[in-house]
Structures are given as structure tokens and as C-alpha cells.
Design goal:
- Two copies of one chain form a homodimer.
- Chain A is of the alpha/beta class and 287 residues long.
- The first copy, chain A, has two domains: 172 residues, HUPs (Rossmann fold), CATH 3.40.50.620; 96 residues, 2-Layer Sandwich (Pantoate--beta-alanine Ligase, Chain: A,domain 2), CATH 3.30.1300.
- Chain A contains ten helices and ten strands.
- In chain A, the strands form two sheets. A six-stranded parallel sheet of chain A has the order 1-4-3-2-6-7, with helices on both faces.
- The first copy, chain A, is globular, with a radius of gyration of 19 Å.
- The termini of chain A are far apart.
- At the A-B interface, strand 5, helix 6 and helix 7 of A face strand 5, helix 6 and helix 7 of B.
Chain lengths: 287, 287
């Protein structure tokens, strides 16, 4: 089937297209991204393509979700390449608004989610999840999708968006999709491009320690011991600097009070290599 | 025309009705209220009736927008009477969810609007407008109206909701409607029922001082002098206790830095009579 993708950069034009699709009774799948696409993003498009009549992808590097000392300015961008990849993967509408289009005046409205934003990246990156929930709600208002597809690499983001959608009765179903990895195990990320060859090599410790954690969980090791062992594995890599190593209840991301068999948990890592901060996680259950 | 109103108390049931109306291409008008209806509310229904194919009214006394020492518990409720009045005014769908239906679990998501919420009732009632913007966004998500009708008595609420809708690109047009008054000038309010006969009499000072303010503005009196005269008028009423008397730029509710002719302003009052807090306002321009 020949698919002709339309690239749209204004909210008004997108609304016209969405309205037309709605009138034809089409279901709308939405893949919000910050661009610099990789196989992880394309797996979300594939899931949307299978479930929905119209697939909308947004590419917007959202300044609200970057801290003052973070990488908003240098975040990798390549809209030409992204556009080709999106078209190839079956995106129907590619929404690429400018910052001025999304925030024509300073935005005074903030959407905040409590509790699930407290630990992990919420603790390391103050304000980050306010920026995420605010822009996602705005994108949902513009695209009005039936389904929205998010990668589980950003597991906390999935938890935050799901909580927001439930709390505010937003008429969209959030569909989390599995982490996509390079052949050697490194979780796909637009930020991987920052890594030097040496950092790239040592960064394998994230996926390797999570694979070990899965085995240790199988063996029934206590969670504190698993955390200590992961920390040790990462500390053995000279270029690695731990931001956090946490094991929390899933999906509410609260501390595991008692280790009940069957309890769903997330093993979540954030590690810096030079200026690059990588995250990865494993969702599992206590034996 | 015989109008049969449907009363609905669950989100799911309302969604079914809204979806059916949408499929028939109907435009949807929405009048969110806390019930204990009066002519002010009915004027909103009238405006919605004239502009839209389907008129949805919600009645929900929203605990989020009441402070711990405010009147949530004793806020007047009379769903039987409200239902009859709504049907008589031409409401098609009356949405009357319980607190449990709206907030089945503690809500973790908050929608906050900065700046316009800082002065006036935002200063007197901390957290009030977070409760308002959060519930209004949730109701908008449920009802998905084309137009939403709000009374200008709550002028700051209109400003907050308009700002939120613009910031988040919510696909709804906010329609402010004029204040409706009793024959003697008292602005209609569900809280007027709290007033004793004596308080009710003295409460006329709100509308009277605003009428005076309009005349003083016509005469070109400086704003500070107008504020002082209003304060004096209110202070002359022994049962009145001023919460605030403010003149601000409209609609952004910021201080008037320089008194430019033609500048739109709001004269806003909040006055307590015993346990009852009344508000009223005038929107005008500097001469």
C-alpha cells in the first residue's frame, strides 16, 4: 500500500485534518516524540499502524521538560531524516510545530502529577515531569487520539501520563510498548549519539546489570542485595557515574514495604557517562 | 417544543450520549455548575440553547475548590428543584456525578494557572483556582463541548479557564455571559440563601458601590480615589467586612501601572456578611 505522509506544522492545519478523519469514523493513533528517530520510535508507529486507521506522530523538542542545565539546546535534531523514517514506517500525519507555535506566549498553565513523579527521574530532574504532563496534555488536546503509544524505556513517563489520563478522564488509551534494544543490549535512545566509543562500550553495563537482576530475582535474592550488586557492577565501570539505582513497586512507583511474592516491581537505573545521562529499566515480579 | 431531559450520573453513560450526538454532527454547549440553580445559571442555559444543538449542564459541588474552613459541607444542594429548573430551561443532558464518580481514588493530578490566579479570590482562597481549573479540565474531557458558558460574576474564574484553554489548546470556546441581578441589584448567587434579612439589605452595598464606581470612572476620578470611596461606602455598613476592593487590568488581572484612557479594567469586590462571602464586579474602561 502506498502511503503519502503529510507534514504539518500548525495546530490549526492539524485540527482540520483530524476533524476530517473523525468525520470519516477513523480511529486515531498518536506517537508523541522529540524526534531523532530510532527503532524504538518506529516500533511505536508499528503498534499504532496495527491498531488505528490514522497514525499521527509529533516531533517536538519541548523546552518545558528540560532543566536549565540540561541538553535542550544540543538535543539532536534531524527533521529531514526523521521525516523519511516516519513516512517509511507508515505515519500519516507528521506534526512538527515550532516552539512559537506551541507556546506563542509564555505558558501560564502547568499540569502536575503527584507521587509517581517523586522518585527516580522526578528527583533527579526537578520540573521535568511537569513539562512532560503539560505538553502531553496539550498534544492530546490538539490530536484528540483514541490511542497514544509510549515506550517503556521511559517507564516513569508512562506512569505519569497514565495517572494524568485517569485522573482527568482524558478520552485516550495509553499503550505502553516494550523497550527496543541494540543487538548488544543497549536500550535505544536519541541520546546514545552523544556517547564516545569507550562510553558506548561501558554503557552496556545498564542492560547487563538488569539481565543479572532478572536472574537474581528468579533466585529470590532480597531487593536490597540486588540493588547493592547492581551498584557494584556499575561502579566497576570507570566512566560510569550512578544517578540512581532503585527498585520500586510498579506501577505506582512507591517504596516496596514488604517483599510479597508476585508483587510487580521496577528495577530502574540512571547512569551518567560524561555529559550523557542514560536510563534503563526492568519490570518484573518478586518471587 | 417538548424537551425531554436526561439525568445521568456516570461518566461512562454520559460519554455514550455525547458520542451519539457527535456522530449526528450536533454542536455541544456546556454549562458547568455547582447546582442550587438561579436565574444566573438559567441565562447560561439560554445562551447555550441559542448557540448549540445539545445542551449539557453539570451539577457537581467540587470538593477540590473549597478550602478546609470553607462551606463545602453546608453549600446549598437541592437536586430535585435543580432538575426541574434545568429541564424547564432546555437542558438536554443533566450530568450529576457523585464525588466518588469524579474522584474514585485521591486525584494526584493538578492543573494550575499562574499570574491570573495571584490576586483577588486567588489570594483570599489558596488552592481554590487549582481546584477550579482541574475540575473544569476534567469536565471538558468528559463532555467535550464546542462551547462552554460561564457567568461573569466569577470574572476571575472566566480569566483562569480562558487562560487554561488557550495554553493547553483545549478545543472549546469559552463564552462569558453577563452578571444576572435581583431587581434590587444584588448579583445572583447560590450563597445568597445564607444571608439574614438584615445582611441581605446591607449586601446591596456591593452593586451600589459598583454603580457609583461606573459614574466615578465616567467623571475621570483616579482609580486609587475610586477604591477609597468604595471602601468607605462598604465600611459604612456595620455587618460588612471587606475581603478585598481591587481595580486591576482586564482580562490579565495585573496591576494598572499607568492609567491609560481606554484601558479595560475590572473593579472587583469581595465582602463578608457574617459567614457569607459575596463577590461582585464591574468591567469598564478608563476614561
Amino acid at each position: 500500500m502506498i502511503q503519502t505522509m503529510q507534514q504539518i506544522s500548525t495546530i490549526e492545519e492539524l485540527r482540520v485534518q483530524i476533524k476530517a478523519a473523525r468525520l470519516q469514523g477513523k480511529t486515531i493513533g498518536f506517537v508523541p516524540t522529540m524526534g531523532f528517530l530510532h527503532e524504538g520510535h518506529l516500533s511505536l508507529v508499528k503498534a499504532a499502524r496495527e491498531k488505528c486507521d490514522l497514525v499521527v506522530m509529533s516531533i517536538f523538542v519541548n523546552p518545558l521538560q528540560f532543566g536549565p542545565n540540561e541538553d535542550f539546546e544540543r538535543y539532536p535534531r534531524d527533521i529531514e531524516r526523521d521525516s523519511q523514517m516516519a513516512a517509511g514506517a507508515g505515519v500519516d500525519l507528521l506534526f512538527t510545530p515550532s516552539v512559537e507555535e506551541m507556546y506563542p506566549r509564555p505558558i501560564l498553565t502547568t499540569v502536575s502529577v503527584a507521587n509517581v513523579t517523586t522518585p527516580l527521574c522526578g528527583a533527579s530532574r526537578p520540573g521535568h515531569f511537569d513539562g512532560v504532563s503539560t505538553v502531553v496534555l496539550k498534544l492530546f488536546s490538539i490530536v484528540q487520539p483514541d490511542y497514544a503509544f509510549f515506550g517503556q524505556k521511559d517507564a516513569q513517563q508512562v506512569a505519569v501520563v497514565t495517572q494524568m489520563v485517569n485522573d482527568l478522564s482524558v478520552p485516550v488509551e495509553v499503550i505502553p510498548c516494550p523497550i527496543v534494544r541494540e543487538a548488544d543490549g543497549l536500550a535505544m535512545s536519541s541520546r546514545n549519539v552523544y556517547l564516545s566509543a569507550e562510553e558506548r562500550e561501558q554503557a552496556l553495563v545498564l542492560s547487563q546489570s538488569l539481565r543479572q537482576a532478572a536472574a537474581w530475582l528468579e533466585e529470590g535474592l532480597p531487593l536490597e542485595q540486588i540493588k547493592a550488586r547492581i551498584r557494584q557492577m556499575i561502579a566497576d565501570k570507570p566512566l560510569a557515574e550512578i544517578d540512581y539505582v532503585e527498585i520500586l513497586r510498579y506501577p505506582d512507583l512507591q517504596p516496596v514495604e514488604t517483599e510479597l511474592p508476585g508483587q510487580a516491581i521496577i528495577v530502574a537505573l540512571a547512569v551518567r557517562f560524561g555529559k550523557t545521562r542514560l536510563i534503563d529499566n526492568l519490570i518484573a515480579a518478586i518471587r
